[in-house]
Amino acid sequence: MAKDCTNFINPACPSLGTFVIDLRNTGFVIQAGATWTLTVDSPKKIDYTNFTEGNQVVHGRCGGSCGGCNKNGLYVEINEALQPDIESAVFPVCTV
Questions:
Q1: Residues 6+ apart with CB under 8 A from 24
Q2: In what side-by-side order are the strands of the sheet with 45-52?
Q3: Are 39 and 4 in contact (CB under 8 A)?
Q4: Are 61 and 10 in contact (CB under 8 A)?
Q5: Residue 67 has what DSSP assignment?
Q6: Where is the GON domain (predicted)?
Q7: pLDDT tens, 52-68?
Q8: For 69-93, what is each residue's pLDDT tens digit?
Q9: Quick check: 83 and 23 in contact, CB under 8 A?
């Protein structure tokens, strides 16, 4: 979710909430045709969503008047051609 609280008393402050989803180096992509919807908090608009890097990165901006936007479900797909090499894996180490 991206959300903001614009100073709606002063329309000269048209800020919108922004978001970035970055799935690079994971082997996952955001499903083609993904969309966002406005939240119920009286948002003004979805300004843009921009998919790059073969649907692995999406940038968006939305909101206004304490509103925002949500993804209509978050659907990711595996793209085997983009999976990282197993040698790049880092094994977790517990420290106490």
A1: 53, 56, 57
A2: 17-22, 57-63, 45-52
A3: no
A4: no
A5: -
A6: 1-82
A7: 878 888 888 777 667 77
A8: 777 776 888 988 888 888 888 888 8
A9: no
